[in-house]
Amino acid sequence: MGSLSIVFWFLISIVSLIYIYFKKKYSYWKDRGVNYAEPIFPMGNLPSRKAHFKDFLISVYKYKNENPFVGAYIIAKPIVIPTSLDFIQNILVKDFSNFHERGAYLNEEDDPLAAHMFSVDGEKWKFLRTKLSPTFTSGKMKFMFSTVVDVANRFNDTIANVVKPGLGSELEIRDLLARFTTDVIGSCAFGIECNSLKDPNSAFRYYGRKIFEDAPIGAGTLLLAFQYPDLAKKLHITLTRKEVINFFMNTVRETIDYREKNNVKRNDFMNFLIQLKNGESIDDESANQMRKLTIKEVAAQAFLFFAGGFETSSTTMAYCLYELALNPEIQEKARQEIRDILAKHEDKLTYEAIQEMTYIDQIINEALRKYPPAVFLIRKAAQDYQIPNTKTIIEKGQEIMIPVYCIHHDPEIYMNPESFDPTRFSPEQTRKRYPMSFLGFGDGPRNCIGMRFAKMQIRIGLITLLHNYRFKPSSKTVIPLIYDSDMTILTPRGGMYLGVEKN
Questions:
Q1: Which InterPro entries does the protein's record reference (predicted)?
Q2: Cα(first)–Cα(last) distance of the chain, in Å?
C-alpha cells in the first residue's frame, strides 16, 4: 500500500471517529427523552455566523414548552437551558446547595486575578462571600456616598466644558460614562485618583479597556477552555492579559504598602480588604476568622470590584440615557422627580434624597430588564438532581445556563417586551410578577454582591446628568441598537452617540 493510500485511510479513520464521537454526544438529550433543540455538526446549537451569545439563547429558548428546560449543545457539550421560573427558583434559591457552583474556567497558577469570588467555588467561595458581604451593607454605602458624589461633580464639570448653553453637542456617551465609573471605582476600590475624566488614556482607563475590549484569547480558545478546562490549564490559557495582571498586582501591593507604612485609613473597599488580610473583622463583630486573605486574594477581589463595577454600571447608564433620549416624556418625568426631591433637600444630593427617587430606580430596573449586562447565569450541578414533579434527572457536573435575556424579553412575562416602560417596576406591578422574572442582579446566595454599590453609582450618575442636561437622538444615534458580538457583556457596537443640551 502506497504512502498516499495510508494517509487517505488515516484521514478517513479520523473523520469517522470524529463523526461517531459527535453522533454519540448529540444523542444525549434524545436518549433521556427530554425537550431539546436539534444540534448541527460541529457547533451544536451555536449560530454558524458570528453573533452575540444572546442569539444562541434565543434560538434555543423558542423551543420552550411545558417542560422545565430545553436541552441544547455548545459544540459537543450538552447544556440545560431552564425555561420554567419554578425550576430557575429551585436552582438559584430553594435547592442552591446542589447548584452553588458556577464551574467557571479558573487558572489560578497563571492568572491570580481570576481567583475572585465570581469564579471560585466550594469552601473558597463560601469563605470569601461570608467575609466580603459586610463590605456592601447600606451602612458602608453611606460611607462611600460622598466619594461618588465628588466624582459625579467632576463628571458634570467635564461635560460642561464640552456642552455650551444653547448650543447642543453630539457626544459618544458610553466612553464618558466608563470614565466616570472608572474614577468612581478607582476611588472606592483603591483610594486612587484615576483622573480618567481629565485624561481618557489614564492608566486605569487603559487597562479597563484591555479587560473587556482586548481579550487575550479569541472565541475558539475560549470555547476550548469551556469544553476542556484541564487541557486549557496545561496549555497555560488565561482569560486576562499578562500586562493587566501585572498592573493590578503591582497597584494593589503598592497601595497596601503605602497605607500600612503611613497608617492610612479610608472608608473604601481596599481598607476592608486590608483588614481581612490582617485577620481583622469588618462587620464590628468579634467572630473568629478562619484565616487571613493572601495578597493575591486581595488583588483578585479588588480586580473583580473594578472590572465588574465600571463596565456593567457604565453600560447600564448608557442604555438608560439612550431610552430616555428616545422617550422624552419619560425623561421629563424623571427630571421633574429629581427637581422636586432635590428641592426638599436644599438642592443637595444626599443619600436620603436618592432613596426617595423611586422613578429613577424604576428606569434603572427597566434598562436592566431590556438590556441585561449578563445575558445568562451559569450554574453546575454538584450532585444528581431530580427536578420536582418530573422523572428527569440533572446529572452531577451538568452545566446550566439560565437565559436571563430571554426571560426579560418573554411576552408571556412582560407585555410588549421591546417597549421601554419603567412603570413595569412600580411596587404594584412588581408584586404581581414571579420573583425570578427579573434577574438583573441574579438571585439567591450567589447574586451580585455589589448590587447596592452598583445602583448607588448609577443613580448618582443619572441624577447628576438629568439634573443638568437633556438627551436627544442625534444623527449618529443607531436605532435599533446593534450589539458587539465580541463582547460577553451586552454592549452596543461602535459606541453610543446622543445629542446633549445643557439646561
A1: Cyt_P450, Cyt_P450_CS, Cyt_P450_E_grp-I, Cyt_P450_sf, Insect_CytP450_Detox
A2: 85
Q: Report helix, strand or coil for 371.
A: coil
CATH code, residues 115-320+343-366+475-502: 1.10.630.10
296: Cβ–Cβ under 8 A, 6 or more apart, which residues? Answer: 112, 115, 249
Indicate the annotated binding residues for heme: 448
Number of Cβ atoms within 10 Å of the Cβ of 428? 7
DSSP 398: -
pLDDT one-digit tens code per residue, 386-396: 999 899 999 99
C-alpha cell at 498: 446622543
CA 224 vs. chain centroid, Å, equals 22
Please give the sequence-ordered ranges of beta strands (E in DSSP) within 251-352, or none if there are none.
none
Cα distance between residue 481 and residue 100, in whole Å: 35
Instruction: Give me the amino acid identity at 157.
Output: D
**Is cis: bond before 480, omega within 30 of 0?**
yes
What is the tens place of the pLDDT at every residue in 200-229? 889 999 988 888 776 655 566 677 777 778
The arithmetic mean of pLDDT across residues 88-103, rounded, is 96
Per the CB < 8 A criterion, the answer to whether 255 and 266 are in contact is no
- Residue 286: the pLDDT is 46
Domain ranges of the chain: 115-320+343-366+475-502
Binding site residue list: 448
Q: Where do the DSSP E strands lie in 23-168?
A: 69-74, 77-82
